[in-house]
Amino acid sequence: MGVRALIFVAIAVASFYAHLSLPVFIALAFASGCCDALAAAGYSAALADVVPRERLALANAWIASASVYAGLVGPVAAGAGLLRFSAGTVLLVNAICFAASGAFLWRRRASEVEAPAHTSHKTATLSHVAEGLTYA
After folding, report:
1. pLDDT score recorded for residue 114
2. Is residue 9 within 8 Å of residue 27, measured between CB atoms?
3. At what angle do helices 87-112 and 2-16 cross, to 10 degrees?
């Protein structure tokens, strides 16, 4: 989330200073897409940590529904924002949302998630990735 926040801050700043060329925009959009691909696998792995196995199907359904809703409402909200504010301002709001989301996830991870004492960090990460791919 933090990387995506930085990407959108970069796009917003470039927009504010009229330095947002097509190659820069394409590079930043590509980086954002890469973050989206990584985040999709991460959601599944994180979900398995916080939701009991018997409720995973329901939790995945809620996430899918929220994703569709965000895909419908987000562009409409951005368009409405563009009627009143500059593109840079709308992109900056998007960056702030990513930063807030990342902060909430970081706080949750720091306070609630602990790796088991008998596994190494590398082993725990690989098992989370494998588990996430199972539900993806």
Report:
1. 54
2. no
3. 160
pLDDT confidence band for 50 (50 / 70 / 90): confident
List all residues 6 or more positions away from 67 whose beta carbon is below 8 Å from its beta carbon.
none
* pLDDT of res. 136: 52
Which residue do the tokens 């690989």 mark?
126
d(CA 88, CA 64): 29
- Contact of 135 with 60, CB cutoff 8 Å: yes
Locate 110 and state its tokens: 């720091």
Give the span between the Cα atoms of 4 and 12, in whole angstroms.
12
Structure tokens at 90: 């709308």
